[in-house]
């Protein structure tokens, strides 16, 4: 063991709990004890162990019920079950459900330690006590984020495709880089591209490359990002915005592990791990015909969802202190941090723009402050400036679309046929637009009692 592994030991028999705890500590493990499943879950929320060792028969919550709760809180955390009532069917059932090992009491000392070492060796590096260099760029103490990072560390060891979902600005590219750093490809390139930021032909050329003369302006051969990332990881950000014709070509590359540059007749083998990300609802996009189902299942072998910053409020002061140190080093070394009132205001804000918005606010505060400690008033001013800031093109387009749809539905009193005619769209496309913006035509009909649309 590289560190003193932390074991959460659970048994409602206090004397056995103490005896087994002493035995484990004598072996060099760090032990936390709990006399019930509920107490064990409380302990799990405070400090993440490397392994849970639990009795099966306990009042209120037995070992298997505890196991299922542990898997919700910390997916992949190994659980070993001990029981004096062991049977082969019980053991088979438990291990099929995901319990790492099922041992009968009185447990053999060597058998117990062998099971513990086996569990720890198979999950090495997944707990917060291990090597954390791979995730150094992600600042958090949120249990929610820690669970995401545990899953990321576990999936990093395989080459499966990962789909990162979550709101814009929540840190999907940082997590993609962390997965790359934790993988066997860490010494190879990590290359990122935003699929929604480029027009279709340029995106195709960037991803797959092109031959000289493939199109007007192609004055020389161009190596695509698949070739540039060979041996490493290609991060496809905003994959939900990729045009359908390119989705077909991407699927072919993933299936064949070969890429054919635009205008070329030769395919080139590539060895690339794909991590993709989106803030869009891809299930809805598939239903609307905007995203291919076969590509979705190729990309979404493992799905990791990042929480919005408002769901990890405990991270805001931590992130703000880290960001202000970075910004001060670049611009104003005399700035030392935020006042306690300023930090409280930051922590209580809604953060619709997530971590990206917090970065902007901190940068503004450092740029405008004339004192070493940033006051609450400056934070308030920066937050107000963010609210009035020019939105991104995609956000502005979405806002316009929604406002326009509401207007035509009001004009036509919810008559979709008439509204589609005014908009110059067929009914199918118009219904897709309404679905994208969660608008229900019946709300606009005369006498409707539904809540007013914003």
TrEMBL record:
Where do the Response regulatory domain residues begin and end? 6-120
Q: Which UniProt keywords apply?
A: ATP-binding, DNA-binding, Nucleotide-binding, Phosphoprotein, Transcription, Transcription regulation, Two-component regulatory system
At which residues is 4-aspartylphosphate found? 55
The protein's matches in InterPro entries, at most eight in alphabetical order, are given as:
AAA+_ATPase (IPR003593), AAA_lid_NorR (IPR058031), CheY-like_superfamily (IPR011006), Homeodomain-like_sf (IPR009057), P-loop_NTPase (IPR027417), Sig_transdc_resp-reg_receiver (IPR001789), Sigma_54_int (IPR002078), Sigma_54_int_dom_ATP-bd_2 (IPR025943)
What terms describe the molecular function in GO for this protein? ATP binding; DNA binding
Chain ranges of the Sigma-54 factor interaction domain:
138-367
What's a single GO BP term from this record?
A: phosphorelay signal transduction system
NCBIfam families attached to this UniProt entry: PRK15115.1
What protein does this entry describe?
A: Two-component system, NtrC family, response regulator GlrR
């Amino acid at each position: 063991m590289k560190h003193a592994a932390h074991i959460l030991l659970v048994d409602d028999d206090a004397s056995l709990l103490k005896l087994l705890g002493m035995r484990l500590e004598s072996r060099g493990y760090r032990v936390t004890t709990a006399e019930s499943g509920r107490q064990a879950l409380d302990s799990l929320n405070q400090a993440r162990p490397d392994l849970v060792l639990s009795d099966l028969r306990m009042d209120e919550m037995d070992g298997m019920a505890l196991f299922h709760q542990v898997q919700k809180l910390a997916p992949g955390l190994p659980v070993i079950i001990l029981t004096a009532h062991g049977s082969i069917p019980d053991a088979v059932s438990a291990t099929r459900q995901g319990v790492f090992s099922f041992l009968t009491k009185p447990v053999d000392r060597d058998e117990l330690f062998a099971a513990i070492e086996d569990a720890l060796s198979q999950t090495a590096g997944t707990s917060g006590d291990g090597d954390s260099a791979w995730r150094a760029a992600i600042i958090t103490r949120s249990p929610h984020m820690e669970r995401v990072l545990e899953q990321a560390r576990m999936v990093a060891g395989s080459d499966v495709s990962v789909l990162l979902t979550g709101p814009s600005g929540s840190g999907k590219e940082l997590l993609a880089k962390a997965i790359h750093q934790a993988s066997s490809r860490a010494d190879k390139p990590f290359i990122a591209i935003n699929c929604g930021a480029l027009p279709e032909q340029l995106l195709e050329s960037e991803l797959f490359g092109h031959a000289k003369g493939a199109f007007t302006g192609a004055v020389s051969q161009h190596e695509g990002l698949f070739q540039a990332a060979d041996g490493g990881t290609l991060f496809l950000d905003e994959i939900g915005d990729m045009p359908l014709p390119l989705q077909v070509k991407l699927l072919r590359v993933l299936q064949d592990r070969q890429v054919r540059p635009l205008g070329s007749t030769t395919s080139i083998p590539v060895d690339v791990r794909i991590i993709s990300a989106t803030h869009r609802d891809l299930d809805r996009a598939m239903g609307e015909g905007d995203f291919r189902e076969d590509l979705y299942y190729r990309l979404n072998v493992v799905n990791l969802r990042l929480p919005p910053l408002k769901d990890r409020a405990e991270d805001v002061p931590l992130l703000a202190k880290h960001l202000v140190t970075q910004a001060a080093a670049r611009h104003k070394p005399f700035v030392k941090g935020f006042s306690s009132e300023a930090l409280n205001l930051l922590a209580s804000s809604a953060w619709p723009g997530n971590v990206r918005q917090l970065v902007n606010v901190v940068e503004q505060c450092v740029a405008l402050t004339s004192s070493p400690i940033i006051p609450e008033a400056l934070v308030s001013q920066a937050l107000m400036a963010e609210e009035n800031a020019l939105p991104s093109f995609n956000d502005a387009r979405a806002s316009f679309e929604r406002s326009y749809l509401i207007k035509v539905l009001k004009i036509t009193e919810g008559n979709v046929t008439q509204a589609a005619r005014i908009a110059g769209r067929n009914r199918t496309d118009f219904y897709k637009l309404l679905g994208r913006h969660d608008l229900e035509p019946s709300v606009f009909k005369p006498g409707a009692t539904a809540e007013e649309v914003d």
